[in-house]
Amino acid sequence: MSKPTVLLIGGLTHVNKEWEEYGSKYVLKEFRKGTRAQFLSNCKNGEYDGIVALYRSNHSVSQTGPFDKELVSVLPKSLRYICHNGAGYDNIDVDACTEKGLQISSTPIAVDDATADVGIFLLLGALRNAWIPLTAIKEGKWKGNTPIGHDPKGKVLGILGMGGIGRAMAKRARAFGMKIAYHNRSRLSPELEEDATYLSFDELLAQSDVLSLNLALNAKTRHIISAPELAKMKDGVVIVNTARGALINEKDLVAALESGKVASVGLDVFEKEPEVEEGLLKNDRAFIVPHIGTNTYETQREMELLVLQNLESAVDKGTLLTPIPEQKNKSNGHL
């Protein structure tokens, strides 16, 4: 009996040995480097015919571009599973994949702690306007014009999206004495909710002292925070975003920062990465870092391993370990 064929798209950093070991039971094909045109051509000329699963690395979009309708349409008919490295998968056209019968996995859980750590870092930095003294001391100005900051204790942390990262953020914020409120598509079980207060979206906007965005980007959530939503928030609210930049209309956010409606922001993600809205670059109350949420050795290795585990489970058992939410309601992850 012939071995199943699997495809790697993009490079690996930490699990090359584990990938190569799969050669004992799978036929391994690779597209580590190249262009979108080359990848499309390979698909059309049958080079990947017979593959049943593919590993899509975290940076493969720079090789193939997004998995949009055009690309999905030329993927081999034998393909059944797309194992994606990343908690976010907004560069995959889920509808096009679902229509073609393709099951998708992502890497939740593996990213929760590292992303929440950066979220708390940004939260504290925004509350203390940390960018100003950090810049001042390196310019020989000691504290510079650092304004007085705020303690997290007693503040309401509103979490928009109480998934794994949101809950990890809540756990850390409790240690600082913060009160936790959240809004989700559905209310959590009492075990997961703990002492957090479930609020409607508008209630969360109105009651949060700090608003943390921890939800996926899709057509429904793009610009979920824009001028109308900002107007419903407390004067002097702090906003933290470690999810996806396009959840926020950055121009509206800059306007709210400049008016004082938003006191400060802590951002790890941006709407048009790697470009950053000029108003955020110029504003001293914007505490920003360049999408480093999962940039640790431990987390990136765990993410790569989880993708391999998804691929192995898919090929050997016909079931993904961490299917994306849009496909979780299907029996055993099957379409």
From TrEMBL:
Instruction: Write out the similarity annotation.
Output: Belongs to the D-isomer specific 2-hydroxyacid dehydrogenase family.
Which InterPro entries does the UniProt entry name for this protein?
D-isomer_2-hydroxyacid_DH, D-isomer_2_OHA_DH_cat_dom, D-isomer_DH_CS, D-isomer_DH_NAD-bd, NAD(P)-bd_dom_sf
For this protein, what is any one GO molecular function term? Answer: glyoxylate reductase (NADPH) activity
Alphabetically sorted, this entry's keywords are: NAD, Oxidoreductase
Q: Name one Pfam family in it.
A: 2-Hacid_dh
What positions does the domain D-isomer specific 2-hydroxyacid dehydrogenase catalytic occupy? Answer: 61-323
User: Looking at the UniProt record for this protein, which Gene Ontology cellular component terms does it annotate, in alphabetical order?
Assistant: cytosol
Which residue numbers delimit the D-isomer specific 2-hydroxyacid dehydrogenase NAD-binding domain? 121-293
Please give the name of this protein: D-3-phosphoglycerate dehydrogenase
Presence of keyword NAD: yes
CDD domains the UniProt entry points to: Mand_dh_like
PANTHER family, per the entry:
2-HYDROXYACID DEHYDROGENASE-RELATED, GLYOXYLATE REDUCTASE 1
